[in-house]
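Journal club side-thread
Mid-discussion, someone asked how the predicted structure for our own chain would compare to the paper's figures. Pasting it here so we can look after the session.
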Amino acid sequence: MKNRKSRIIGEVRELSKGFSRRTIPADYMDRSESREAYGAYYGEVGRAKGEALGEEVLIRASPALFRKERVRILDLGSGTGEFARALARTLLASSEILVDLHMVDRSEKALARIIPGEKETGLSLSSSKALLPFERPFLAEGWDIVSMANCLAENESAQEGFCELFCQAVDVLSPEGLILLVEPADKRSSRSLLALGDRLLERNPGLVLLAPCPGGRKTPCPALSDPDNWCHEDRPAGFSGELLRTAEALGHVKDALKMTYLLFSKGASPQRPSLRLVSPLHREKGLFWGDFCDGRDWAKVRLLTRNKGDLTRDFPRLRRGESIAPPAAWPLGKPALFDWPKDLAVVRLAHPDGRPFDRGTREPS
């Protein structure tokens, strides 16, 4: 057992280096050692992302999607399959639907591992091999959800190909269909995904960006106007003791669920206008501050400690990804800095996943 754990840690270390340096071999999923290590470590993280984003789909998607008898999901670059299956199972557990999940990967060996012999209640699994983004036989059919996780980071030179792929995917989506794209929570991956999102919105005028950007953002993404800015999620998560021990051995920090994602729709309404906290909320001497975005403008918002009172008491409690009602003075000019006045109420609108705050309760001071 000790030798197996040591071997997995060594394999994960090599995978991590390859992912961060963008030198991962194209055939790494064909190696049994890499597949086992990936599934044991990154697979658990992928499962947590699938569950979290499945819950978000249930909140944000058009209700018409869940009035169907069957929801058809196409997952691209499935790898060891944990993300896609967690997404499908979350939808199954919370709605009266059946799910057909078709998984696509360039590795036949990876696909063979994730298609089990036994059937799962309500879930139908199938797969096909394809070299993404260039081979697209799966786009001959219609889909309700098209998802992809972590493929851009492994194929940086093929962004135009992925843009063309998803433009075609929009054409075969059902009227209430969704596109869900997920990438790692690092600056390089985040900006790559945000740039792809801009191109999809430009080429598909009927496409709506549901999340995480508020107000149905169009283009350009405010984060991309400054080379130092990027946007990602940092949500509470509980990982297994085994994963945490592996992370500690590797020097990784696994204290939260971190990711960059975009959720597009053909049929749902965009979020209401709001300000979303896209950074940690910082506390410095005499003030609290954070970076906020409304989908059009990115600005630093501050609350001076002397302005903290009953109306502004919720500002210091904000967490990354939460949204608040924008002040009447928004949007801003330049420089993009807003000092929150003491006589303007801070109204928390929604949690990072879109769940509204309960207006009937207040947190203690």
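Post-session note: The longest helix spans residues 32-60.
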